[in-house]
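TEACHING EXERCISE
Course module: macromolecular assemblies
Task: Read the component lines below, then compare them to the predicted structure of the full complex.
Student: A.B.
Group: 4
Components provided:
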Amino acid sequence: MKGLSLTLTALLSVWCLSTGLAQSSEEALKPITRTYALKNVTIVTKPGQTILNGTVVVKDGLILNAGQNVSIPADAKIIPADSMFVYAGFIDALSNAGIPKPEVRPATGGTGGGGQRPTGVNPGTPPNDLAGIQPELRARDLIKPADKSIEDLRKLGFTNAQVSPIGKMLPGSSALISLGGTAADNMILKDNFAMISQLVGAQGVYPNTIMAVMSKFRELYKQAEQAKAHEKMYAANPAGMVRPEVDRSLQAFYPVLDKQRPICFVAPDLKSVYRVLAMQQELNFPLILGGLLQAWTLADQLKAKNIPIILSLDLPKMEKKEPAKKDSTAAKDPEMERLEKRRADEMKLYETQAAVFAGKGINFGFSTLNAKTADIREALRRMVKAGLKEDQALAALTTTPAAMFGVAQSLGTVEKGKIANLVVSKKSYFDEKSQIRYVFVDGNLYEFEAEAPAAKPGTAGAGKGAAPSDLSKFIGKWSYSIDAGDQVYKGVISLIDEGGKLGGSWTGSDGQSKPLSNPSLKGSELTFSSSVNMGQDIPLDFNITFDGAKFSGKVKAGDFGVFPVEGSKEPRD
Amino acid sequence: MKQFTIITCCLLLVLGLNAQITKGSLLIKNGTVLTVTKGTLEGSDVLIENGKITKIGKGLTAPAGTKTIDATGKYIMPGIIDAHSHIALDAINEGTNPVTAEVAVGDVIDPMDISVYRALAGGTTASHAMHGSANAIGGQCQTIKHRYGTLNPNDYPMEGAPRTIKFALGENPTRVHGIGRGIMPRTRMGVEFVIRKSFTEARNYDAAWKKYNAEKATKPTALPPKYDRRLEALADVLNGNILIHCHSYRADEILMLLNVCKDFGVKKVCFQHVNEGFKVAPELAAFGASASVFADWWAYKFEVYYSTAYNAAILTKNGVVTSINSDSGDYIRHLYHEAAKTQYYGGLTDDEALALITINPAKQLGVENRIGSLEVGKEGDVAIFEGHPLSVYGIPVFAIVDGIVRFDRANDPDDMRLDVDPIKATTNFQMATGRHDHDRCMQGVQELMEELFQLKN
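Instructor-supplied answer key:
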C-alpha cells in the first residue's frame, strides 16, 4: 500500500512537472541568470547626484552595488550601457494601471432601442454600486497582472504605481504595486494605502451632481463616526444595547477616522481643490490631493497646510486652429488674435504649474490618471520646457513618491540594497530623442528594441512598400457624439472593408444613412466627408483618430465651425 | 479644547482657505442718490469706508488716497438684488429624488462664471443662487455677492445671510418624478403629500435627537438616531433656521403651501414666480408671505397661462413684499427694465418700482438690514447709472460691491473672463441666445432624464 502510494505520488509529480513545463513553454523562457551588470553607465543615483562611467549590479531582485570600480559577479549578464543613463524606476503616484474598468450596469433599461423596461431601481435610493459608494473595494482584489496598461506604463519607465479602483465618488482603497509580476498579491508593496475619493456623481441616480456627492460624503463620514462609536460601546458592554448595524462601506472609513489612512482625493480643477479643502477643514481627515491640473494659485496655501500633492500628467493639449480659408479675403481679426493669445497664455499656466510648485519648495508626485500613454513623456517634457528642472521632475518621479508611500528605504534611488527597480535610457530621459532600452522591476529585466528613427507608420514616405494596414480593428459600428456647444448630436458610423480600403456609411442627426465619401485612413487617422440636412445641406468633414475601442477628433460643419467629435466601438450584436 | 478650536480656526483663516472678503473705500461725488427707503437726494455724495456706507450727504470728504468717482449727472442707487437666479453654479438640479433638502448649491459655486460679470454690468450686485425646481423639496440655496474677480468660491456667499431652501409645486416635480419615473408626486395632491410626509419625518427625527440628548448622560445604552442630512435640513426648516423659497404658479397650490406651513408652524415663506399671486394677494399678505415674480413673462407651459403684467403692482398694493427676479443669465442684466414695467402696468412710484429689485428682495433673503438701500451703516453695494435706472435710456456704468468697483463700463478690459479653456480653439463668440421660453429652474434636468432613460442612444 505504501509502495503504491509512493508510486502514485511519483506519477503525480511527473504529471505536474510536465504540465508545468507545458505551461512555461507558452510563456517567456525563464532568464538564465537574475544577476545583471550595467556597465559604463551614467548612474543618476538620486536627483542631482550622478556617477559617470559607473556599474550597477543587480542580483536576486536587489541592487547589489552601484558606483565606479564595482566588481562584477561571475554569473552576471553584462549589459554594455555606454551613453546610457540609469535612474531609479519611476513611481506613478496615482494610476488605474492593471485595474479593469468595471462593467457598467445600467441604472435603468431604456424604453427605446434596447427594448428593456426600467429594472425598478429607484434613482433616489440606488444600491451602493450604482451610487458609486464602494469604499470597501480594494485595488488588490481587482488587479489583473497581465493587463496591457501595466506594460504600457513600464515601457515609459514606471516600475511602481499607486493604483486605484475605477469608479465614482468612493471607488475603493488603493495599493502601491510593482508594475511587473504574475500574481496580484505578490505585486503589492503597500496594501490599502489610501481611500480614494473624487467629486464624481453617479450616472442617472443619486448622488448625480457634485453637490449631492459632497452631501453624501459628509453624511457617510458622520455615519461612520456614529457606527464606529456604537461598535466600540457594544464591544465594551453589549447588555441591553441594540446590536450595531454592520455596513462594510461605513467600516471602510474607520482607518480614516483613526487617521491611520489618508483619503486621496482626485481634484483636477481648481474648484474641486477648493471644495475638497472645504470638506477637509470641516471633517479633518488626513488628505492627499491627487491629479491636480489647475492648482497653481493655491500653491502657498497647500504648502502651509503641508498636504501631500500629486500633480497630473494629463496636461491639456491645444487644439489647432483651423487654417483660414485660402479664398478668404478678410483681414486678420485682431480680437480673435487677442483671444487666441489669451488661450496660449492659459495653456502656459497649466504647463508651468509643476515649476511653480517646485519653485516654492513643494514636493509632489506625478499621476498618469486619465493621461494617454502616448502623451505622458511629452507632458513631462512640456513641464521641463516650462521651467521645471530635470532634477525636480526626477524627484517627482522617484524620491518624493517613495517618501509619500513610506517606502524610501526600498525604492526611489539607485543605491545598494534597494529593490532593483531601474530604468535605463539612451540619452537623458528628458531628452527629446532619448529611448528607453531596459527596465528592471524587482530585478527582472524588460528589454526594449532601439527604435529606428524611421518615418512613423502611415506618414507619407511609408510608400507603396508599406504593409496594408490591418483594417479589422476599425471595422464595425462606432457610435459617435458631436459636441456642437449647445447641442450634442449622436449617431452611428459603420465601417467596412471595401477591398482593402476602409469605407462604409454613417447616420446623421437627420436619421439618413449616407455613404462616407473619400474615406482615407492613415495609420489610425481617418478622414471622410459627408453632409447632413438640417433645413439646408451642410457639408461635413470628419477627421478622427482611433485609440483602441475609442476615437476622437473634429468635424468641420461648413461655415458653422469645427466641433469635437468622439465615439466608441459598439459591441457586436 | 474650545480655545484650541478657536486658535485653529484663526490659523485656518490666516492660511487663506476660508473666504477673505476684500473690502474697499470709495467716495462717490455729486450724484442723484436714490436711497429707495429714505427718498431721493440731489447733488449728494456717498462715502463707503472699509466696505460700509459711513456717510451720505453733500460736500463729503474722504481720507487722502480714497478712490473717488465723480457721479455728476448720474444716478446712484443700491446695488440691484436678484431674488432668483442660477448663475455662478456648477449644478442646479439634483433631480434624482423628489426630496433633496440635504444638497446645497453653496457647495458648487462657480466664481469663474462670466454671467456674474454680465450681471454686474446690469447693476446687479447680489443674487439668490437657487437650486432648481425638479423636486418638491429641492436643495439649499445661497445668497451670494457678485465679487467677480476672485477664483475662490468661498468668497461668494454673503457671510451671515440666512439659509434658504428651494421648494417646488406643480408641473415640474410632477413631470420629473410622476411622469418621468412613475413615482410620487404625480399630481398636485402628491406634491402636498411629499412635503407633509417629509416634514413629519423631520419632526420625528428632531424629537428623536432631543430624546437622545436628554437621556445620553444617564442611560449608557442610549443610541443617537442615524445621522441623516436630509432630515437635519428639514428640521432646520421647521425650526425656522432655513427660509422656504417656493417655486409656484397657481393660486390653489399657493394656498396649499400656506396651509402646510401653518400646520407645521413655519412662519416665513417666499413664493417664487407665483404668476397667480394676484388672485391670492390678500391671503399672502395676511400670512406675511412674500412674492418674487416676473414682470411680464408667461405661457411657457400650461400652468403659466393665467398671468398678468399687473401681478407685481397688485401684490404690492395689497401689502405683499414683492420682488422682480430674473431666473436667467440674461434678464439679470436688465432687472431695472423689468422693474420699470410695473410703472406702465400698475403705476407704481419710482421708489415702489425700485424697491422690487432692491430692498424687497433683500427682505425676502433676510438681509434687509445690510443691503437693498442706501443708508449709513449698510454695506457698500452700489450701482451707478447714466440716466435714470427706470428710464429706457438708463445705462449702468459702475457696479460696486463692498466698496470695491467690480464693473466699470468705461475702463474694464474687453476680455473679462477668469476661466479660459486652453484646449478649444477660439471660434466666433456666440452670446447665449437669451432664449427665455423655459425657466432655468429646470436646468440640467433634461440631461438627467436623457441619462436615465437613455433617450439619446
